[in-house]
Each structure stands twice: as structure tokens, then as C-alpha cells.
Specification:
The chain is built from 16 helices and 10 strands. With 499 residues, it is of the alpha+beta class. A 4-stranded antiparallel sheet has the order 2-9-4-7. It has a 4-stranded antiparallel sheet with strand order 3-8-5-6, with no helix packed on it. Helix 5 runs antiparallel to helix 6, helix 5 packs parallel to helix 13 and helix 7 packs parallel to helix 11. The longest helix has 30 residues. 31% of the residues are buried.
Length: 499
Amino acid sequence: MGYLYLIGSYIAGSFVYLVTGYLLPFFDSINGRPIPIGLMLQNEKPLETVGISNSFEDDVFLVADNHFSHIASFPLILPIIIFIIFALVSLFLPNSNNIQRQNFSLSEKEGSETFQVNNSILSVSPIYQFLSANFTLNEAQTDTNIRGTAKIWFLKNDDVVKYTENTFSSKSMTDPINLFNEHTINFDKVNIALSFTANAMKNQTYQLIIQSMEAVSSLSIFLCRVIFSLLLLPFLISLILRISDPNNYLRSEQLLTYFNTIFTIILCHPLYFLKLFIPSTLHDVFKILSRDLFFAYSIFYALSLYMILGKKPETSDSIVLSFPFVVMFVVFIILLWSDFQGNIIEYFQKTSSLTTSSTYVSDELGAPHYLVLLLAVNGIIALAFMVKNKITQSQSQRWKFYTFSISAICAILVIFAGIRLSFDNLNEAMCDILPMALFTAFAMIMEYGHQNTDSANDQEYQKAGAQAFDGDDIGFGIDEDPEQLAQPKPTANSTLEGN
């Protein structure tokens, strides 16, 4: 029996070239190595026509190539169960916003006066993620404005690590004034000194509103990040083992799927809990960058799957992946520009803004994010139906697998985006955990769909061949004549007598 080895094509196109960089020659040695062709022929027989595919990919079947009834098993159901469980957990977590309101007596005087307010916030810890403070006068009976100066000291072990001084004003005495919004990185105490002029009434009181994240919600997010990463870790180990095996072959879709898993782990950021022990702004900056990069790659991944599926056999993967790569690059630049205009700059600014309300800026999505999501969903749907008219019958099952999986995740994302736009006071823990659970489940499903397997037809042929074989048959599935079976078989003696 002979073995046929052919030359594997370069895979993953321009994206792998730019992202992997120095790893490209290593991947090329695995996927693009020349493999000698050996056909064992008998000299006494002429060479007959043999079918040779144009690449080794044509001889490799994926789980996604099989009918749904053949792949609807535990590896496909498990990611769905995981998503449902963590979605329910995120919904029933306590409200992540910890709001404390404390009232203090301002003064017993009447008339226009200058007042001094001094307060301290103690026991600040990185577990609270962020901290904000708002000041307001209670039940003021005048529409006159309030003007003053806010001095804020941030201390670590009684040493001042940051100091800000800003002026503020409000149109009404009862309007809340935001004093600061800070991530709890390198301080454990805050001292507040306010000096302002207002037409306060007798026995006037004021209120400090302190907002942070609940410790339980914060720990839940840290734990979920680690769990999601551990669920995807076996696929990374599988990638290392397959790359280290010189006899293994990776299709373009499989390599792109492995990168999708890698970017999902980066999105989950399992080491984010180190922020508790090594507080740094870079943790939050990396979270924003990884979110935008994952968003851009997800669009590239969905477009690439359909374009590889619908490409002509003679077209290389590098050519068909060029357009999705350009889309990914443009999307990433747009999202990154949006964040640099807002969130990331706020991390590094030295003074606090006194004009905006308290928000957890690291997770805020701007209009570009929602616009890109809407355009991407429509573009992927349009490409899916365009490719459907080009694929062969053998590719129809994989098209259905891609379309079902990608459509499901797009529908959930659109619904989630609509809910987030409609409601301002959503649980921050749910907004963190739910997308990570969704993308983790999607990565697991796509990994399962891109595992090597026999085609559905081959499985049916093997099953039919096993049923047809019988030890009493002549070996080609043709039964013997019953009448012949009933006649006695000649013996050696009867044969000799006949002769």
C-alpha cells in the first residue's frame, strides 16, 4: 500500500505574517515544507490514471464538514452549557456599584458666606477597582449657584502620592459636584478640603456620595477571567503539540482558529488579578487594548472563514485573506483612536475632571464600537450568502456550521449592545462576565468544529462495508448460491475416483 505526500500551501496569509513576525519561518517549515511523493507501483502493470489533489488540504476533513447529527455531541453542547451557567451567575451577582451616602452639618449661619469642608476617605484598596466622590448641598432653598475650590490629597501609608486642586461651580446649589474619579491603584486614603461660597440657609447640611465597586463583584470578575482562560488552555497545549509534530498538518482555518483562541485568552486577561498585588495603570490600559484587538480580529476571523470556504482551488489563502486583514487593521485603528480620545487618556491625566459624572471608564464603549459592530454584522451576513452560491455540495455542511455559530454570537452581541445602550445602571460585573463567557464558548465551539475527522460519507462507507463483510462470503459482498451450499462438497477420494 502506497503513501501519497504532497506540498502543503502557505497558510494564514498576510495576517499571520504581520502578527507572528519572527515565527513565520517556523510556521512555514511546518505547513509549507516539501514532502516527497512515493507511489509503490508494480512493474508488470501499466501506470493507471490516479487522482491527485492540488493540495493536502483537499484530503483533510473537519468536524464541521459532517452533518449536524454526527457532531451534536458533548464537545458541542458543553460550551453552550458553560455560557448559560455563567450568564445566569452574572445576572444574579449583587449590584457591583457600592454607593455610600453620608450627611454632614455645614453651618448654622444664614446669608452669603464662605464655608470650609474637610473630610477623609479611609481603607481604600485595589479590590474596589475605582473610587469617585460627589458633593451636594441638601434641600437648598435657593437657585443661586455655588463656586469654590477643591483640594484633594491621595496618600499611601500617610505619604502624599498625588495632589490636585481645581475650581468648580454649579448652576444650582443642589446640583451634585464631582470631586474626583480615580482607579484605586497606589493610594489607601483620600483627604478632601473644599472652600466655597454659597447662600446657605440655617442648619444647612451637605452630602458626600462615595462610589466604588463591590468587593464580591470584583473578586467574581477576577475568578471568571481565570476560569475562562483555563477552559481554553487545553487548545493551546494542542497547538504546541501539533506544531512540534513534523508529521502533522494545519489547515488555514485551523491556524486561524487557534489564533482566535489565543486572542480570547488575551481578552480574558487571566493575570488581571495581579492588580491586587502589583497596582498599575497598565493593567487597565492593556484591558482596553486587548478588547479592541480582539474585536478587530473577530471580524477578520469571521470574514476569513467564509472567504477561504468560497475561494477557487487555484487561489492561495494569502490573497483571499488580504481583504479581511485590511478590514481588521482599519477597525483596530478606529477603536484605538476612539479609546485614546477618551478612556486611555483619562488613565494618565494628572488632574481629575470635575465636569463629568462618575463612570468606570475602562469598560465604557463609545459610539464607534457600536457602529463597527452593526456594520460588521451586516457585512458578515452579506458575505455568507454570497459564498453560499459558490460552494460545492461537500462544503455545504461547513457553511451551515459557520453560519449557525457566527449568527448566534452576532445576535447575542446585538441584543447585549441594545440592552447596554438602553439602561444606564447595569451591573458592571454582568457587563464584564457575560461577553467573556460568550466569546469563550464561541472559541470552544470553533475549536471543536476544526478538529480533523473522517468525512460523513467515509464513515457511512466504512459502516456499510463492515456490515457487508461476512466470513462465509467470498469477500466482495456477493452471497453464494443456496443450492450450491446444499450440495455435498467433493472430497479428495471422490475426486480421485472421478479421474
